[in-house]
Task: structure prediction
Amino acid sequence: MVTVQTQVVENVDQVNREGLQRLQENSQDLTSKAMELTDSWGQAMFIMDKHLVERIFSTLGFSSIICSEVYESLRSLAYVRTQDKKPVVTWHILDAACLTLRGVVDLGSALSDVNDNNIENFLDDNIDIFDILMNVMPEYTRNLMFSPEVASVVVATLGGNLSSYKIYDLAAKYGHQATKDLEGRRGVSTQFIRSLTLTISARFHF
Result:
């Protein structure tokens, strides 16, 4: 599949049907990144239903056309199937899909300007969408904890450079929950890291 270069759309509400076409035109890179992100998360898979996908893309600010059709567009890529061969959509493709809809084609370096020095200012500037995303996340994500090292690898898969220490501090401040066990293992909620990466993917200016 040929990767199609295009200009990045800064405001996601301006993404039109050409964005949906980009998902198909860049399907090989998109699904490859979804597989890489699956590994980054430790090969854990979380299947999403259409309603949740629509709510997330609506929260991110995409148009009604994108919100109503993006689930089937992603499902048609068939990058994950159930035992009865039905394609499904998992969390692992959402950030890459958001970036692809906006016109980003080099997913491996998409977030290369995101780092420990600018992430807090970025979050403060986009706290509106971040807070709404936190509330949109399913209940289970609030208590499903991953190490900040895993979260750092997830961000790095898209080219970002956030240290595990910064992510842990951000989770405590903005996500209002971070954990540490008796042997020093730290945890940040899936709710937080999903909201963080989606906010970056939708609002970061390239």
About this structure: Confidence is low (pLDDT under 50) at residues 1-5.
